[in-house]
């Protein structure tokens, strides 16, 4: 109710000292809510201001006003953003060139040579990359395929699908035939079934490694693949095939957008299950390194006297620490972090591994007694989670040999992420403290160490094929490049960085995309290099957009999007595959049933085919992307620095000396043992 100005008595706030009544804590009731607004103001004319509301309505009024102010700020911010976007030049959006329609939901996808491998319900299907024609359909499982790998072996392709039970199977795809090699971890007793987490195949397909997880344990199984034997059996099928068995022709599923003429299949396309290929040879089992424990040795002299081998000296392995030291360190840790240790502890997850097959180099040369083709994989590199060390295992061994690493690269912090280049020439190790170490494996020395900006931690690393900017255009050098590499680094805060290294010059890091602060829908979820386009990467954002970025100019060239009715179902985890040999990529898009029927049986799943050469902006780039050698000579491109040559010759000379004189190494070790025994005896006499 409002009052006239002249009839209302002014309410004056009295000093605290003149107030009457006992000084005690009032009970928490609505009557004692603060009335400062009412006490500090004089009621004015009702035409100018209304009387203040009683509690709790006054508090509700404040909350409503606050909510209104915040909403208005958001509206103004969105309007400003909309105006800014409308004023900016939007990138050209290109639609897909083709579409593969599927009746069942695809779970995974891989591209190799001219084929697309799509894993889904009860198996996987193989399609032609150009005309979306289905070639093979292997559907013999009772569960779905959740992940699939496809490795190019030259004329053959090695396919490895993993089903929901964690069983991985190895397939050999050659010409018109699909052959099942082996189910790697399938067992009869389901209680002992292991799960395959990851797999890798060496360059050339001579070795394969599978990361398996069992009940409370994890390990890596390494196999040698008999490729030559497989090829002989396939080229001479009369030696192994059973003539009584009939080969089942694969049936085709109808594709919605492909005409009947395009769906004609070669009559020789079949699954040749009657030919049994030789099984892979099991050569090694690698387990995570055990934690360092106490030793009964009482002094370093006793350690030197009792150990018979010098393996691991100075490498960060084979530590010998007294039990009392461990107990002392445990007490200090418990006292320092007692308030954090008193709560409930969650079970620590199992360690996982990242592993690569490495080619011979100065760092890990093959033994002289081992004879193998030039360029054949000889070393397996692996690092485990929460581990500081990168282990190197020789592949020239049998199952009877002890699985000990031949080399260890210790790092200052636990290794979080690593990546090997496609040519197996460069390796990046990113530690948990944001420091990246770049190794030139071919030369045998590190290219340098770089640190990410403060607060940035590595999430993924992607190597780019080395390119140059020639006359304003990104181009690949025609000849081989030495000690020159570039890669993009995606950080956990969604920022994108470019790492460049060139010979003896230290590596540099530059920011490509800043961390999103206000517009979180533009958060980068995935990055994929495009080998067909020099210096180009695909960027997948949380809002479902797919953009092509030029890392040299640090600008968006264009964008790609499926039709409006087929948005990405999980934009924060897109399902895509970029062809390493052709200028194209594939992207899954699901039918949006919001506009039409909501019947699940009518939902259509599609895989869209995007061709870069079909885009006018990219057609000239993909066809003219190589710079001739004569232009490189005019640019004085440093393909080989004199300092690098001197370092290479020095390292090769040192390694040759070590290989020629293994007796001297053992002689020095025996001399050290004798000296330690003498020093230990003198200490006892004192």
UniProtKB/TrEMBL annotation:
<protein>
    <submittedName>
        <fullName>WD repeat domain 93</fullName>
    </submittedName>
</protein>
<dbReference type="InterPro" id="IPR036322">
    <property type="entry name" value="WD40_repeat_dom_sf"/>
</dbReference>
<dbReference type="InterPro" id="IPR006885">
    <property type="entry name" value="NADH_UbQ_FeS_4_mit-like"/>
</dbReference>
<feature type="region of interest" description="Disordered">
    <location>
        <begin position="1"/>
        <end position="39"/>
    </location>
</feature>
<dbReference type="GO" id="GO:0022900">
    <property type="term" value="P:electron transport chain"/>
</dbReference>
<dbReference type="Pfam" id="PF21030">
    <property type="entry name" value="WDR93"/>
</dbReference>
<dbReference type="InterPro" id="IPR049547">
    <property type="entry name" value="WDR93_beta-prop"/>
</dbReference>
<dbReference type="InterPro" id="IPR015943">
    <property type="entry name" value="WD40/YVTN_repeat-like_dom_sf"/>
</dbReference>
<feature type="compositionally biased region" description="Polar residues">
    <location>
        <begin position="1"/>
        <end position="10"/>
    </location>
</feature>
């Amino acid at each position: 109710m409002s009052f006239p100005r002249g009839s209302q008595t002014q309410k004056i706030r009295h000093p605290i000292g003149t107030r009457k009544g006992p000084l005690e804590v009032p009970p928490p009731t609505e009557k004692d809510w603060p009335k400062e607004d009412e006490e500090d103001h004089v009621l004015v004319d009702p035409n100018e201001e209304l009387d203040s509301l009683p509690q709790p309505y006054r508090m509700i009024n404040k909350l409503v006003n606050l909510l209104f102010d915040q909403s208005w700020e958001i509206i103004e911010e969105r309007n400003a953003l909309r105006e800014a976007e409308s004023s900016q030049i939007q990138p050209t959006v290109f639609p897909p060139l083709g579409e593969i329609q599927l009746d069942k939901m695809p779970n995974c996808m891989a591209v190799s040579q001219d084929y697309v491998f799509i894993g889904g319900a009860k198996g996987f299907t193989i399609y032609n990359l150009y005309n979306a024609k289905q070639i093979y359909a292997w559907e013999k499982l009772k569960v779905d395929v959740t992940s699939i790998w496809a490795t190019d072996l030259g004329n053959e392709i090695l396919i490895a699908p993993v089903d929901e039970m964690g069983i991985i199977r190895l397939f050999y795809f050659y010409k018109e035939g699909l052959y099942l090699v082996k189910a790697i971890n399938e067992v009869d007793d389901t209680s002992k079934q292991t799960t395959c987490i990851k797999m890798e195949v060496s360059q050339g397909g001579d070795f394969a490694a599978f990361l398996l997880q069992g009940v409370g344990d994890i390990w890596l199984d390494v196999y040698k693949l008999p490729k030559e034997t497989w090829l002989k059996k396939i080229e001479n099928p009369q030696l192994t095939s059973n003539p009584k068995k009939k080969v089942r022709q694969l049936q085709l599923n109808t594709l919605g957008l492909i005409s009947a003429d395009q769906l004609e299949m070669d009559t020789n396309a079949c699954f040749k299950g009657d030919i049994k290929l030789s099984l892979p040879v099991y050569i090694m089992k690698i387990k995570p390194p055990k934690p360092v424990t106490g030793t009964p040795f009482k002094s370093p002299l006793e350690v030197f006297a009792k150990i018979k081998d010098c393996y691991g000296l100075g490498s960060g392995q084979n530590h010998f620490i007294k039990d009392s030291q461990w107990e002392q360190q445990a007490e200090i840790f418990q006292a320092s972090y007692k308030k954090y240790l008193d709560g409930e502890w969650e079970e620590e997850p199992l360690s996982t591994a990242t592993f690569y097959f490495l080619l011979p180099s100065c760092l890990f040369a093959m033994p002289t007694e081992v004879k193998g083709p030039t360029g054949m994989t000889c070393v397996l590199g692996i690092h485990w989670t929460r581990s500081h060390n990168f282990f190197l295992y020789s592949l020239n061994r049998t199952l009877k040999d002890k699985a000990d690493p031949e080399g260890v690269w210790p790092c200052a912090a636990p290794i979080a992420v690593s990546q090997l280049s496609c040519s197996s020439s460069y390796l990046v190790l990113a530690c948990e403290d944001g420091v990246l170490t770049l190794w030139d494996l071919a030369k045998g020395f590190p290219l340098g160490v770089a640190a990410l900006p403060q607060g940035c931690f590595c999430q993924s690393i992607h190597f780019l094929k080395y390119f140059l900017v020639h006359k304003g255009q990104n181009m690949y050098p025609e000849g081989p490049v030495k000690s020159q590499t570039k890669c993009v680094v995606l950080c956990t805060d969604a920022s994108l960085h470019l790492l460049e290294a060139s010979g003896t010059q230290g590596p540099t890091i530059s920011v490509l995309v800043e961390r999103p602060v206000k517009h979180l829908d533009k958060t980068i979820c995935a990055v994929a290099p495009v080998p067909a386009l020099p210096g180009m990467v695909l960027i997948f954002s949380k809002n479902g957009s797919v953009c092509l970025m030029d890392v040299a100019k640090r600008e968006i060239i264009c964008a790609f999007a499926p039709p409006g009715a087929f948005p990405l179902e999980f934009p924060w985890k897109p399902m895509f595959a970029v062809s390493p040999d052709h200028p194209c990529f594939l992207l899954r898009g699901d039918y949006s049933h919001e506009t039409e029927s909501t019947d699940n049986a009518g939902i259509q799943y599609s895989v869209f085919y995007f061709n870069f050469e079909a885009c006018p902006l990219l057609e000239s780039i993909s066809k003219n992307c190589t710079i001739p050698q004569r232009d490189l000579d005019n640019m004085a491109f440093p393909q080989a620095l004199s300092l690098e040559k001197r370092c290479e010759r020095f390292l090769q000379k040192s390694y040759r000396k070590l290989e020629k004189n293994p007796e001297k190494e053992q002689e020095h070790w025996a001399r050290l043992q004798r000296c330690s025994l003498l020093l230990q005896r003198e200490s006892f006499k004192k």
